[in-house]
Amino acid sequence: MHHLLLLLALLGLGVAAQQSPFDVVSSGSQRYVVAHFMVGNTYPYTTSDWAQDISLASSKGIDAFALNVGRDPWQPDRIKDAYETARQLGTNFQLFISLDMTSIPCATRDHAEQLRYYFEPYRNHPNQFKYNGLPFLSTFAGEGCSFGTGSYKDGWSLAIKDGRPPVYFVPSFFLDPGTIGSLNFVDGTFHWNGAWPMKNTNVSWVSDNEYISQLGGKRMYMAGVSPWFFTHYGPDTWNKNWIYRCDDWHFVQRWELVVNHRNVTQIAQLITWNDYGESHYVGPIHGAQPNSQSWVDGFDHQGWLDLSAYYAAAFKTGYYPLIRRDRIFLWGRLYPAAAGSPDRVPRPANWEWTQDVLWGAMLLTDDAQLKISCGASKLTATYPAGLSKFQLPLVDACSVSASLVRNNQVVLNFSPQGFSFSTRPPMYNFNSFVAASP
Fold first, then answer.
1. Where does the signal sequence lie (predicted)?
2. What is the pLDDT, as a whole number, of residue 188?
3. Residue 3's pLDDT is what?
4. CA-based Rg of the chain, rounded to a whole angstrom?
5. Tell me: the pLDDT tens digits for 264-292?
6. Each residue's pLDDT tens digit, 343-379
7. pLDDT for 150-164, tens place per residue?
8. In which residue ranges of the chain is pLDDT below 70?
9. What 3 state SS string does the chain have?
């Protein structure tokens, strides 16, 4: 387990948190990191777009994309392009289907037959992700699907089992975890909502344990890992307007939990690569946004992808990787949570759960002193080699600037362009601005 040490800042109101990066729970079996990918945002994609995403994901320790597919008639063509591009790239990057059952119809027996058209064509594809030798298949939701049988248990048995070619089925059903053990048609479970705290608390492993305890040690567990959650659609569109609490270095804390429980977790799924509408994307912003431009444009999140790669290596190998260069990662909202706005969509639900704070993490090759400021808020503190965390209150309009000093020499200056806190938001944008030093 990591050992966490909280240190008071030497100057200002900033708080420093340090951790040892060396203690990891080891396990002999292979672990995987995958990323949830919204095919619904790829309408304009070409094979070059797929090649860009696959190459980038592979370079950051991601083994596969979970291709979230819905009912749009054009989506199977994009899936075909993804598989073909992965094959042409000649890499080991893999893909699997995640059936979005909030979109795909599942009321009749014909729907059960149609479901297989999404994944059967890729059963023997060289880039199909397999687990225990079987094609891997997942879902988003589906607990309400009966496929004309009268119950979701009978329905999914009909659709997935019942003499059909086998798959390794690990759905994300939004059910009481106590029911998971009775689902004889599943090979494991994916706990989507474990990626965030559902209340005004820090993220924990409590709900994960509730699911894992039902698997009997014989079926696999896939844990969700997500950096953020903010969606801002008014009642005239999808009527989704809330945040989850992602304070206190949420992304780092969640990854640490997953790494420390790798003995009972076989796959970590990043939520997500490109779900712009819910603000938890870690990949580049391209494709077709779902009318989320007003809170996504200008808020690149790829710094989180680099930070995630550090934890992905630890999860997969059981050892944190050697840090070869100093890096600073910064993230936070650009506007006060309580500030008013002329936005036509109201302030998001749960807005009072979040603090006006800049969150930061560092990867250090050796001991160094951090100096960081935003206006009157300042922090100066010394940190050891490894990964350390720090925070800085955001109070007045300001721009962020940071530096690292080692042996009386400045080894890194970092003033990320665009990372400016403003007390007058043009809209209720609770998305996170993310920046990472080169």
1. 1-17
2. 98
3. 30
4. 22
5. 999 999 999 999 999 999 999 999 999 99
6. 999 999 999 999 999 999 999 999 999 999 999 999 9
7. 999 999 999 999 889
8. 1-28
9. CCCEEEEECCCCCCEEEEECCCCCCCCCCCCEEEEEEEHHHCCCCCHHHHHHHHHHHHHCCCCEEEEEECCCCCHHHHHHHHHHHHHHHCCCCEEEEEEECCCCCCCCHHHHHHHHHHCHHHCCCCCECEECCEEEEEEECCCCCCCCCCCHHHHHHHHHCCCCCCCEEECCCCCCHHHHHHCCCCCEEEEHHHHCCCCCCCCCCHHHHHHHCCCCCCCEEEEEECCCCEEECCCCCCCCEEECCCCCCHHHHHHHHHHHCCCCCCEEEECCCCCHHHCCCCCCCCCCCCCCHHHHCCCCCHHHHHHHHHHHHHHHHCCCCCCCCCEEEEEECCCCCCCCCCCCCCCCECHHHCCCEEEEEEEECCCEEEEEEECCEEEEEEECCEEEEEEEECCCCEEEEEEEEECCEEEEEECCCCCEECCCCCCCCCCCEEEECC
Q: With 0-12 CB in 10 A as exposed, 13-18 as middle and 19+ as buried, what is 410?
A: exposed
| Percent over 70 (pLDDT), the chain | 94
The CATH number of 9-19+325-436 is 2.60.40
The predicted structure's pLDDT at residue 338: 98
How much is the pLDDT for 27?
Answer: 55
The reply to whether domains 9-19+325-436 and 32-317 share a CATH topology is no
Instruction: Give the architecture (CATH level 2) of 32-317.
Output: Alpha-Beta Barrel (3.20)
Q: Would you state the structure tokens that stand for residue 128, as one six-digit string?
A: 């199909």
How do the domains of the chain map onto residue ranges?
A: 9-19+325-436, 32-317
